[in-house]
Amino acid sequence: MVSALDLFSLKGKNIIITGGTSGIGRNVADYLASAGANIAIVSTKTENSDKVAQTIAATYQVKTVGIGCDVSDANAVEEMVKTVSKKIGTADVLFNNAGINLWGGALDLKYEEWKRVFDVNVNGVFLAARAFAQQLVAEQKPGSVINMASISASIVNLPQMQTAYNTSKAAVLHLTKTLAVEWVQHGIRVNAVSPGYVWTEMNQVIPQEIRDYWVNATPYKRFAKPDEIAGAVIYFASDASSYTTGSELIIDGGFTCI
Ligand SMILES: NC(=O)c1ccc[n+]([C@@H]2O[C@H](COP(=O)([O-])OP(=O)(O)OC[C@H]3O[C@@H](n4cnc5c(N)ncnc54)[C@H](O)[C@@H]3O)[C@@H](O)[C@H]2O)c1
Fold first, then answer.
1. Rounded to an integer, what distance in angstroms lies between the CA atom of residue 191 and that of residue 183?
2. Which CATH fold would you assign to the domain 4-250?
């Protein structure tokens, strides 16, 4: 007899979630904990991370830790991975979710803005994946990295211009494939999740006419709920995806089909 629930179970797995205090990361954290995982919540503010970590521990009776860490700071990221080991055990899964979007087209965007988007979205994803994998390789353990890409990795969003963001997410996608091939020998899988427009706080403050444009361009005619991203992360984090590496799972209500 087989068990689908066992296949997708995260019982005893230790998972780092960067950008875990709000939006998609906060929502997915609950689902991962409910599937049995111990959770490390990472965000730039220690107090916010602590608060979320404590709430999750109390709700799901799993081990948690909250950590303040800017993912674009290489030393801080290395310390963060070590702290996770000490507090809840070596991480088995990294959900590389932290990201920012600064709108602007190439003609108007300040170079500082371009660099900041790359620092968080690309360098942050690279640094966290590398520190996570270095520890696993040293301990000869397998693992799974789940990088947060976006449909913006392969399409150009309209009506807003977001040159830096689109380019950064394309880099995340190809980094995913590159690391997948490099690390297969170490038993570390690397996959990407690419949502379309998700109904998070970030999008709720966008002017109505722009939100209407996005919804009309989506075959499903609505935003994704953050809960609708969780299943993909559980799949990539669990043994259900043991032969899956270098993949991108697009969750966009059909946006990129048309
Ligand atoms: N919301 C969407 O429509 C959508 C669509 C596709 C992809 N995404 C991606 O999903 C991810 C989460 O987005 P969200 O919508 O939940 O946004 P959000 O702003 O609610 O969450 C982003 C999180 O990242 C953290 N963060 C930002 N900069 C950081 C840094 N330097 N170091 C550590 N943490 C940092 C923030 O504290 C926050 O917890 C991002 O990578 C985003 O690009 C979002």
1. 12
2. Rossmann fold (3.40.50)
